[in-house]
Amino acid sequence: MNGAILKRFFHPEYLVKQEHRLGELPDAPRAYKNVLHIALPSVAEMVLVSLISSVDMMMVGNVLGAEALSSIGLPTQPRMLMLCLFFALNVGVTSIVARRKGEERQDAANSTLRNAMMLAVLMSVVLMSFALIFARPLMMLAGGDTAESPKVFEDALDYFRIMTYSLPIDALSMCICAAQRGVGNTKITMRVRVLSNLSNVFFNYCLIGGNLGMPRLEVRGAAWASVIGLTIGLMMALATVLTNGKRKGYLHISRHDKWTFEKDTMKAIAKVSGNAAVEQLGVRFGFFIYARILFSLGTTMYAANQICMQLLNLTFTFGDGLGVAGTALVGQNLGAKRWDLSMLYGKICQRYAVIVSLVIGSIIVLLRYQLAALYIGANTPNADLVIQYAAQTMLVLAAIQPFQISSVVLSGSLRGAGDNLYVAAVATVCVSVVRPVMAYLAVNVLHLALAGTWIFGLSEIALRFIFFYPRFASGKWKDKKV
């Protein structure tokens, strides 16, 4: 009986209805292998990058303590608010490049890359200038006016300003990697992101505590280490697309190419990325307000929140990596006029998500105290309290895993199909309205601690899954044009 249930849940024959099939479906081993071929490098890339980011935070917390954790946490949402336009651009780049590859239009894929790169540079320079001018007001809006210590605010301001200088570097690197994911070159992006972040960790060691003859810069050292790592990542990303004599990858650029904005290409980018931009702005606004509400809980709880958010981001990367596979395979098969295969691969990605989420949730529950203790030095002020608050909140984190990872994977598959407007609408309402309202009720009305606030605030993740799963299963996206 159990075997029959598992077969209905996992086997390709049951994932696409007979009346929806346009040809022969691959058998189960081949179908799941096709997903893993793209997903594994992408998951490995994002998980390793997130792990390295965790090491980054561990270095700050163990050397400098809870106040420093709060200082590097405060600028997170303002910086993500700036990056959200580039996240939106990259959604469009991945989706369009995947579709063009399926249509066997290599020139159009390369045109998309060039136009997106020019747009990324232009937008990033404008945003960088704005952020540097208004850095102090942005930090105040993020919750700096409620900081318990002036040092927390000033360190956060220094960190934000230094990181802002890297915006054009980060935007261009992300754009190239997004295009590579669209053609399925996830191994390339894995190497770029992992080596970039390993460089970050090395310079963290040198600059935070002043090792190997380097100056002790503390929080500012963590920021400069990130800038160095991002610069190395950009150089590696450019190397993957620059032509070298007759050697050219599927995606390539040269100074001899047409480096002007092309109307049709920009129209396609605007169509897909525009909907994603609405989503990203709404989502980042919601995260911004949510983070401000949690910052008012005080330095100790906010430090615990930073630990849990770092683990949340780590678990998110598993879904994001599978979502990249969903975006690429759904887009490529729609371009090849096989929407039945798009349906199949999107559902297989979601099945992988269920398995991964159950494993991750179990690990978090069993090792929550040990995980929390990794992020803060035992001899730093209030370390025991930070660990206690974080461990309690990790139980909530474990419980939401099946909904979180599945919703990320499904949204990636819908984006690959060009159904960005639906994804944007659901995500915007859930994150920019439901999450902040629930967090406000938890903190300011019910006066709950960190774990209770997470229960209320992150309830919207289950809501996103409730909307995304039936939408993908309905196949209403099959005729979307990109």
SSE map:
Layout: H1 2-10, H2 12-15, H3 28-64, H4 66-73, H5 76-102, H6 106-133, H7 135-141, H8 150-164, H9 167-182, H10 186-207, H11 219-241, H12 263-295, H13 299-335, H14 339-366, H15 368-373, H16 383-399, H17 401-416, H18 420-445, H19 450-457, H20 460-474
Helix pairs in contact: 3-4, 3-10, 3-13, 4-8, 4-13, 5-6, 5-9, 5-12, 5-13, 6-9, 7-8, 8-11, 9-10, 9-11, 10-11, 12-18, 13-14, 13-16, 13-17, 14-16, 14-17, 16-19, 17-20, 18-19, 18-20
Q: Your description of this structure?
A:
This protein is mainly α. The chain has one domain. The chain is built from 20 helices and no strands. Helix 9 packs antiparallel against helix 10 and helix 13 packs parallel to helix 17. It is globular.
Protein traits:
single chain, 482 residues, mainly alpha, 20 helices, 0% strand
What is the structure about, briefly put?
With 482 residues, the chain is an all-alpha fold. It has one domain (36-474).
Radius of gyration: 22 Å
Order of helical and strand elements: HHHHHHHHHHHHHHHHHHHH
Model regions low in confidence, pLDDT < 50 over at least 5 residues: none
* Class based on secondary structure composition and strand pairing: mainly alpha
- N→C terminal distance: 43 Å
Count of extended strands: 0
Percent of sequence in beta strands: under 5%
